[in-house]
């Protein structure tokens, strides 16, 4: 039984397209579909709006945000440890509620067309599993629409803070999907012990890993090598994501190519925020090597950074700017791809895309093509998440 | 006689402030001013909106834009010469109207709070002075509100295209304020002859120079040295702006410091778009050396680039992202400064700022402080340009 009948949309190639949805899935997709006979079906005339697949956020921190709350005045130092310490202190003082914060931001993501999202949730010996519980509640609240993966993330490091490993273990038992980790050299100061602990815990839970690797230059490359050794030894191919990976942007082309070939073989995927002020993984070389690379915000308006937006088309624009993508074909096939298909591939979101049988995650925007959608961060006219209309004619439901 | 009486605004330091305007100037500014007795005065209750000075665009190309027109599909090559040739061909085919284009974009700038603007106008042997005439018409149309400087800019180079120098000469006689120029090595292929011609023409008209210097590394540094020699010889101190200056971001700290000291002595100022994909002048070192550095868009949605926005708060955000400015004080004193006071200083816009006697260029935004205004690109609640209200309670006049 058709529940949703969308007519007069336009596909990325400019041709007319209609979409039929039933039980949260796309059941028909094509030009000039015959009208549904289901009287109960909701009908949408897209009036020529451009059809995109649901947007994918591959790396954010819903639990940290002050989105929708009073402006946070940032007067923090500039080192990574300054920001980690500042946040832990602020949380203790402010009574920050990770449940309410994550729900407000997740709803903003949905309204902007993000239907799949991977969020890293702070697990540490001060907060315990409080942030996880808040974000689990948000996932429950939005379970009908937003497909959310939760990463148990030890923001303050593991080895130096006794009890953290046990908390991560508990978090993975309580509903986190992925084990997060942080700079084994620069933060944990003992890369062998750190990575051994990480892979042992992932192995125990049979879960994927997503490691935040800020380590620059040779230090970062060393960490990549240590990870590759362990992936091979443990058969963890295809289960490791490396976020940030600034060091890959510092290598000459030949060395980058050699390392990327090893990453492709190990099925290691990457996520970048495309930061304007840092080196970034070489996007085109990653594509040539077969290394998946997706885009994410990292934190959005939190004690770390005032920047970021739940609009993944804006993140695609930042990717376009960072990698100097100016042609329409580049904006569609690379920038937009990083926040759609690449995101789904990197995070492992299933039943993704614009084809029959996929989850009905649809975004209809006011743009003539993908390039315009990205650059203008085109207005979301309709958003359908898991078959449910969450934005209707520009108005969030 | 007071013409405009703004009450209940907030200054950047958070204190209440009222503003009185007469004959296009600020005549009083302070907390709790007594109510004006002029019955004809327009009264605005700012309801706590944050008061910023008029925003300044230090480098754009109004004449090139397709803003407000059908989407331009970019399928151009990636070299500088590809983009120059592509644009010239497109202009010849499309019948692009630089007058209509520049007016649409200039109005969008005004509506977003930009009250001072320097635009580079293409002068070449194909288009002649047609673009100049279009932009001069736009300047006339908006003369009551927008303070516009016009740069006669030889986008296709000078030495290789006979007749260009004479057209630049004619443009400066016809109303252009500033002589523009382009890569003396990389484009003109004869830096001595190119720079000699540039300085001779500027000297003849007694006008400032604004040179687009894309040349990387040692080539760019060489051009800087040649310019410094000529500035000293001709007494052109304080009359040269260098836009882009990517090469300054490639030098080690000691060499950058030495060159910046020479630029400061010669009164050379810089403009950056803060491009995420290129090296940029070291902003903090420029400040320490006393070299003014302002922000600009460069082209906005034209055949060169799909990016850019007439919103100078968005440009300030891009500056903040490129230079990794995260603290509220940095966003106010550096990022916002680049699109306000630094812009006025670099371009030489007079009577600028929030003080009695200055031109009444005022922007009232929905933000608690400058950092929030930049990061959220806060809604413009009221915009006053030269004493005239061009946005009223969020609605362009």
TrEMBL record, chains A, B:
InterPro entries: Amidohydro_3 (IPR013108), Metal-dep_hydrolase_composite (IPR011059), Metal_Hydrolase (IPR032466), Metallo-hydrolase_Enzymes (IPR052349). Residues 44-391 form the Amidohydrolase domain. One of its GO terms (molecular function) is hydrolase activity, acting on carbon-nitrogen (but not peptide) bonds, in cyclic amidines. Signal peptide: none annotated. It comes from the Bacteria. CDD domains: Bact_CD. This is Cytosine deaminase.
